[in-house]
Amino acid sequence: MGVAAHRERVLRRREYDESDVRVRPGRGSRPRTKDRPAHRDAEEGMVVSVDRGRWGVALAGDPDRIVTAMRARELGRTPIVVGDSVGVVGDLSGRPDTLARIVRVEERSTVLRRTADDTDPFERVVVANAEQLLIVVALADPPPRTGLVERALVAAYAGGLRPMLGLTKSDLADSDEFAAHFADLDIPVLLVGQGDDLAELTDRLSGRVTALIGHSGVGKSTLVNRLVPDADRATGEVSGVGKGRHTSTQSLALYLPGGGWVVDTPGIRSFGLAHIGPDDVVAAFADLSEAVENCPRGCTHLGPPADPECAFDSLEGKSLRRATAVRELLTALASNDSW
């Protein structure tokens, strides 16, 4: 039988379709998929440190089960910060020189963000999923500035964190005058200097994730070392507000002896808020958020002469006092002064 006759006989025996033809794609033309592995066996953990492309992860939030992990390739450049809840696979033994992989970053419940200044469009997430923000301020040496506190409060309200003030060096100056600036916001104000009893503070921190921020030199690292005796955070003299040697250079989550975590952040030079608008702040207060529904379109809530019909001006009693305090925050937000 000839070749042609044999081929005709085979074709009669079987019908072909496109699945019978295997086409090998050329280099660079292979079809890609956006589907990512499910990693259903990934173990949940909390990011507690970040250092040059490596993340420390406390598995199940257990401070005794910390592994070092890299970001999985399929996550691309997904940002991962301290406080993030992540899924981890690979070597989870935590032994030296082992490396796990972060394969999933869960949706964040809160975010503490800042920009370098008010003209910088690039926002940086400082801490994720913190429930509280403790703003550490020295009452003297360096002298306190309301600007940083106001801006930190704005970031806390916009990001969903409950703010607190921690005042250090109360032996050098009276705290009442400074605390009075924020009385109408109902913010807890605690004395947390070296000679102060920390019982109330530790009670508020217990079982929660709390971020700590403050200018360099205000005693934040000293406070952290008191809260977590084995933290061994560096402390030192700083020549002035926002100048000199910063005693902490990386954010780090530290487990509290009574449960919960504190996230010590580096001493900051400025707190830009380019990503936040007035309504982001007002939304944190139920009574004010309801009132501003009656504001004209585009109202900045700063009051006359900029906003002569702002609904804040129709409030009374405690709500009016809180609106006045919030206006001070909004003034700080509009000032373009990142201090």
Secondary structure layout plus pairing:
Layout: H1 3-13, E1 43-51, E2 54-59, E3 66-71, E4 85-90, E5 100-105, E6 111-114, E7 124-128, E8 132-138, H2 146-159, E9 162-168, H3 176-180, E10 189-191, H4 199-205, E11 209-213, H5 220-227, E12 252-255, E13 261-264, H6 278-282, H7 286-291, H8 317-334
Parallel strand pairs: 3-5, 8-9, 8-11, 9-10, 11-13
Antiparallel strand pairs: 1-2, 1-4, 2-3, 4-5, 6-7, 12-13
Number of strands: 13
Strand content: 15-25%
Largest sheet: spatial strand order = 10-9-8-11-13-12
CATH superfamily of the largest domain: P-loop containing nucleotide triphosphate hydrolases
Helix proportion of residues, in percent?
Answer: 10-25%
Shape: globular
